[in-house]
Structures are given as structure tokens and as C-alpha cells.
Amino acid sequence: MPIHDWTSLEPGDFHHFQQGWVVNLTNALNSGLLPPESMAMTEQVTGRPIPDVVTLESRTPDEEARRADRVVIRHGRGKVVAIIEIVSPGNKDSRNSIRSFVEKAADILNQGVNLLVVDLFPPTPRDPRGIHQAIWDEFTEEPFDVPPGKVLTVASYLGGDSPTAYVEPVGVGDALPSLPIFLSASRYIPAPLEATYEQAWQVFPGLLKKIIDPTMP
Hints:
Layout: H1 11-33, E1 38-43, H2 61-66, E2 70-75, E3 80-86, H3 95-110, E4 114-119, H4 131-136, E5 152-158, E6 164-170, E7 180-182, E8 188-190, H5 193-202, H6 206-212
Parallel strand pairs: 3-4
Antiparallel strand pairs: 1-2, 2-3, 4-5, 5-6, 7-8
Helix pairs in contact: 1-5
């Protein structure tokens, strides 16, 4: 399924889609993609910057769906090994918002936790060269050139003292790539982004779908 142009909707509309997508990602990972000693859980993003001390609370499915902001992958019920972040308009709507997102991403990587970032929104004055460059500037002065028409980003990071980045620039109309979700320096699984995006789209309100694509019946 091609990536849609989400800039035509209100931020809250995408947040609704984002929460469904996050739950679908979690379910896909727990349905056989992850090794048996690992598990994925949805988690609400809070002000706490250190992911491996965030407590997993017991939640009902309805509560989990309402609070689903990102996916956290743990080894058992202990150490966080990877986090999936889907960027929302609110992460980029002010200098403080983008700074907070970038700093938390850098904190995650500096702790040795792996990270997958999906940004389906074009660069803003706060991230003029895209979200990856904003994150990467925390570690190096190496520039990243965005190909014409490919202003959206999917980036997979291997955390540690010297993080490694695997970046796939994409554009509206492209399919989502299956970049790796690193579970360790030598072990990874493909991110099921395309299939879970399509699942979330199938149950997205038809009224909002027509705003994105007026040609829909």
C-alpha cells in the first residue's frame, strides 16, 4: 500500500491512525516475528527519558489502545532492547517539541537501546533536513542528503557508544520498507511496517480517507 499524504488531515486524525498502527505492530511482533524470549508492548510516551526503568503496568486492551504511542521490545520482562517511534505532527510543531524528541532518541541510543523511527511528515523549519539529520547531529557532523521527492524517513539505529544508522528516504506513494529492528548487535528482524500500516488504514474512518484521497468511492 502506498504511503498517504497525511498533511491534509488534522494532527489528531493522524494520532488516531498512529495508535491503531502501533497496536498492529505490537500484535504482529508478538505473533511469531520476535523470538520467544522477547516481547513487544505498547507504551505511552512520558517525560521519563530512560526506557529500561519504565515500569510495564497491567492494562486492559481498551486502556492499552488509548495509550498506545510507541512500541517497546523487551527481553523477557526486563531489559529494553528496541523501541519503535512513529513521529506525529506534535513531535515537530515547535522547537521544544522537536528538541525533546531528538534528545530522547539520543538518550535511547546512548543507553545501547536500538531504535526504529518512522516519519511520514515532510521536514519543517525545526528539522529542515529531516528527522534523521536532526537525530544524527547529536552524534556526528556528517551530512545526510535527502533525494528529491523522498522527504519522508524510515531509519533504523543500532544503539551504543557509536550508533549505526540505516536510513531509507521515502515519499508519498512509496511502499514502506522493511528495515531491521535490531534486537542486538548481531540479531534483527524485519519491521512489519507495510502490512500493519495497511491494517490500520482498513479501519480508518472513511470520511477521513476521502479527505486524503478524494477519488475514493
